[in-house]
Amino acid sequence: MYTYYPAITPNAEYQLPVDDIHTLYVEESGNPNGLPVIFLHGGPGAGCSADHRRFFDPEIYRIVLFDQRGAGRSTPHAELVNNTTAHLIGDIERIRQFLNIDKWVVFGGSWGATLALVYAEAYPEAVLGLIVRGVFLGRDQDLRWTFQEGASYIFPDYWQEFYTFIPEDERHDLVNAYYKRLTGDDELVRMAAAKTWSLWEGQCLALQPNPEAISHFVDPFFAISLARTECHYFVNRCFLKPNQILTDLPKIQHLPGIIIHGRYDMVCTLDNAWLLHQAWSGSELNIVRDAGHSASEPGTTSALVEATQTMAKRLARNF
């Protein structure tokens, strides 16, 4: 079993304006002359943490983290204007150019995996390889599983609070019902909806309950950006065409990819990773037998650290 690399601090931090509204938090750590990798966080709206640097050997990798629009240390917080998948793809490319990086490894989990794949399909010439975890293809059935009907059968006790927060006559479309409240004028209702939404997701993340993670998910600063941004993306079908990721997969068939997915992932079901692997000849799939969705579960952490080592060895000749 592998575990996180020791904690490190950034070598450099930037506030990068990307339009008249949004400024992104960007950081670099590890080896300034190493193999470049960009970490794409989940949500959307979750932001990065210090542990996200720790999947990578700091002697080998030049590690780039950034908080996506409206998330973490990027400003304005929880802003939905000019916040779409196309904007995020453009931001990633803007960061690559800003840092004078020719090509890089793209690493993402959950929504970050979605974004990694869509970015690679848009800019395959800028990508050396991909590591994706807890794959989310952004299909209608994926949204329904988590936020309408599916995971509700696995966690009926947790679902009760999420479901009954919405009046009965609106429960046929919970994402839109929550979005109405998360974007409304009543601040108390917005925060209550955000905490309820975020708590539901946090409770479904892992095989074993994690009180520290749950506490993080109901923190008001985190909950409002996660819930508002996720709802914004989900009511807009993630700003993707139907089945876009698999349809555009021929654009990245030549790229090496490592897919990691927990067997018992109740947020993004395993069929997401399975279908991606079946359609992507350049990929390998590691199903973690004793894990759910969270990257911090021991088996998944070990698989991710091993994947970064494998990718570095694989790319050694080309870098």
- How do the strands of the widest beta sheet line up side by side? 1-2-4-3-5-6-7-8
| Overall tally of structural domains | 2
Secondary structure tally, helices = 12
What distance separates the N and C termini?
27 Å
Fold blueprint:
Elements: E1 12-17, E2 23-30, E3 35-40, E4 61-66, H1 85-98, E5 104-109, H2 111-122, E6 127-133, H3 140-147, H4 151-154, H5 156-164, H6 174-182, H7 187-203, H8 211-217, H9 220-235, H10 244-247, E7 257-262, H11 271-279, E8 283-288, H12 298-315
Parallel strand pairs: 3-4, 3-5, 5-6, 6-7, 7-8
Antiparallel strand pairs: 1-2, 2-4
Report on this structure.
By secondary structure, the protein is α/β, with parallel strands linked by helices. The protein folds into two domains: 12-139 and 239-318, Rossmann fold (3-Layer(aba) Sandwich); 141-238, no CATH class. The chain is 40% helix and 16% strand. It is built from twelve helices and eight strands. The chain has helices spanning 85-98, 111-122, 140-147, 151-154, 156-164, 174-182, 187-203, 211-217, 220-235, 244-247, 271-279, 298-315, and strands at 12-17, 23-30, 35-40, 61-66, 104-109, 127-133, 257-262, 283-288. The protein has an eight-stranded mixed sheet with strand order 1-2-4-3-5-6-7-8, with helices on both faces. A hairpin with a 5-residue loop joins β1 (12-17) and β2 (23-30). α7 (187-203) packs across α9 (220-235). It is globular, with a radius of gyration of 18 Å. The mean pLDDT is 97.
